[in-house]
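Posting this for the archive.
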Amino acid sequence: MIRRKTLKAYNASRPKEARHAICHAPFSSLNFEQNGNITACCFNRIHVLGNIKTHSIKEAWTGPKAQALRKSIQKRDLSGGCKLCQELIQAGNFDGSRAKHYDQYAHTPTIKHRLNQLTGRTAMPKVFEFEIDNTCNLACSMCSGYFSSTIRQGREQMPPMPKVYDNHFAEKLLPFLPYLTDLKFLGGEPMLIKPYRQIWELVLEHRPSIALHITTNATVWNASLEGLLSQLRVGFNLSIDSATPDTYESIRQGAQWKKVASNINKLKKLSDNQSMYLNIAACIMRSNIHELDRLIEYANSLEAKVHFNIVWNPEHESLRFLPAASLKKILDNVRRQRDRLPINNTLSEHNTNQLSQVIHTIDQWIGFQREDYSQADFLETTPQSSDLAASIYMIYRDLYQESITLNDAQKALHALRIPEEQHESFLAAYFEALSLCSQSIYPDRNHAELTKKIDGVMQLMQNQQGMGEMIHEMIEGGLLSQIDFLWGSSDQQLEDTLRAKFYFDATKVSIAS
């Protein structure tokens, strides 16, 4: 759970009408993923409300999964898949959290709608977010094939992602158009995604007053797109991470800065004509951390707000898992960048403050690695239910990166221990973390084999006496060595080892059976 002091500061940064819920996404938004999953927002891919292949949009919006998430959020509980926002809020990076973004949808026009939100119910959604296709012409260094068809075909050597959304998907949105105020389009590259154009044409025909928000790499712009979008209310979020050609082109591989800069000027003109906006959404990573001030200067020249997204994966681009000594050098450098930036108006102040939030986040990461780091503080930043596996994974990832010692990792894991009646939940989370770590360490191996072994071990361990002892032994043994043991052992060897180490009921299922 988030500390009370931090929660108070977080709410102080928000409009008064938004403070009755820590996040308003479950009450206002649906996010459509390319695998068909429907979630409350793009930061939460764990708590799935439904799937477009098996559920209608209305079923996902009103179903038990959606109601459960709303009730959790009303209790200020971010354990339902909201770990990223929880960590960012706890670190003081309030503007970096996706949760705060939904404050704009908190104000409701009637008392009835207000009461619905307060009691965990809600009316029709206000915003749909689409990331339904990975068609993209770039191979960005921090991206993956899930979001880029170019990476999937080239770098990953994988077949194309299946197309889940058919030509009739746009029609399914019609019942919601009278209630929607905003539609958001992500990719892939939205300018290349055909279903998006169908939606834009549908909006133009039925409700052109809806605000469209397009996140684009600005590499694609032509007369056809301009003719359509100039008739709609469109704001643009530019996916650019540097304003210097060499750094930009090394990150956004396949793009040419000169062409992109020219297209940005055209998008700026269109958004100005519609009294909309043009902003910059930049990823913060090892490749560009040294020149964020230059990106802010460019944004100021465009009269564009900057929003920074922290890169968590791939790890070779992520700052989060660097040792404290490296983070300290980066922190000093970013502070110098911030101090060089002039503040001439509200916009430049906002953009400079975004850099201050980054500084605060890095400072928090350094604090996580100090020897005197409070275990109680750690617990308050750690999810306690469905995100437990992610917490275990992060502890061991820090250990693997040599950011913390084995002793520190064991202390943190013991601190995560939950009541006896939830031991099975802890074991399930532990083995999920084991699988995540294995995929990170051995990305080229066939993990279906490991998953089968893990399932067998879990079946053998379920409902056994002395599970607390098993958990203690597993933590002391170390997840990293257990990964190698699982890979190197047959099913029978695993079963024999477990039966020799612990007492197992003979009636329990055998791994090798």
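Residues 276 and 412 are 47 Å apart (CA to CA). Strands lie at 29-33, 37-39, 50-51, 127-131, 182-185, 211-216, 233-238, 278-284, 306-310.
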